[in-house]
Amino acid sequence: MAMQFYNSVGPNPRVVTLFMAEKGIDIPTVEVDLRGGENRRAPYNSAVNPAGQTPALALDDGSVLTEITAICEYLEELFPAPPLIGTTAEERARTRMWVRRVDLKICEPLANGFRFAEGLPLFESRMRCVPEAAPGLKAIAQDGLRWLDPLIAGRDFIAGDRLSLADLLLFAFLDFGDTVGQPLDPACTNIARWFAGMKARPGVNPN
Question: Which terminal CB of the chain, N or C, has fewer other CB atoms within 10 Å?
């Protein structure tokens, strides 16, 4: 079997597609109809990902990796240049630290704020949704952005002086948030500058 990437709409698979674009990796892609619920029924949720989520990466031996960070770490091992996680123990640890911070403080509450509000018609039959929590989750994501904003003053990237998985993760979710009623607060001027720089990258807008 050849390696295959299971893609769909949404910020989670986009993180991996951005990661692959930055590395110049071309993997055959299978599009999964997320809106139509293809990810929640067989054969996808039986043969590919029992969690019924995207993305997923089928390996040459037929086994499957899921979860953004696991897939990206695996691809970094196979295709180390350019490094997007790191080439030293310190660089890798710093990237993982920022990925964790960005995910917990911003991406996760942003995504659930959408699922429990604007996305409720799509998700309420697929997972436990808590609509009354949506405003608070959206506010938590904005709090996370306000926390991050001064920390990246004077630098181009989240984890320091180089592009990393942390940048791709945050960009994919902020770009998504802008389309679902969670725009970036213009008062976060450092993040706005960073976001504009990310949006101009060829890997983000290949056309």
Answer: C
Q: Which two tokens stand for residue 189?
A: 């001027």
Peptide bond between residue 206 and the one before it cis (omega within 30 degrees of 0): no
pTM over 0.90: yes
Q: How many CA atoms lie within 13 A of 122 on its CB side?
A: 16
Q: Within a 10 A sphere around the Cβ of 107, how many other Cβ atoms?
A: 24
Residue pLDDT tens, the chain, 207 long: 589 999 999 999 999 999 999 999 999 999 999 999 999 999 999 999 999 999 999 999 999 999 999 999 999 999 999 999 999 999 999 999 999 999 999 999 999 999 999 999 999 999 999 999 999 999 999 999 999 999 999 999 999 899 999 999 999 999 999 999 999 999 999 999 999 999 999 888 754
CA–CA gap between residue 164 and residue 14 (Å, rounded)? 15
HEC profile of the chain: CCCEEEECCCHHHHHHHHHHHHHCCCCCEEECCCCCCHHHCCCHHHHHCCCCCCCEEECCCCCEEECHHHHHHHHHHHCCCCCCCCCCHHHHHHHHHHHHHHHHHHHHHHHHHHHCCCCHHHHCCCCCCCHHHHHHHHHHHHHHHHHHHHHHCCCCECCECCCCHHHHHHHHHHHHHHHCCCCCCCCCHHHHHHHHHHHCCCCCCCC
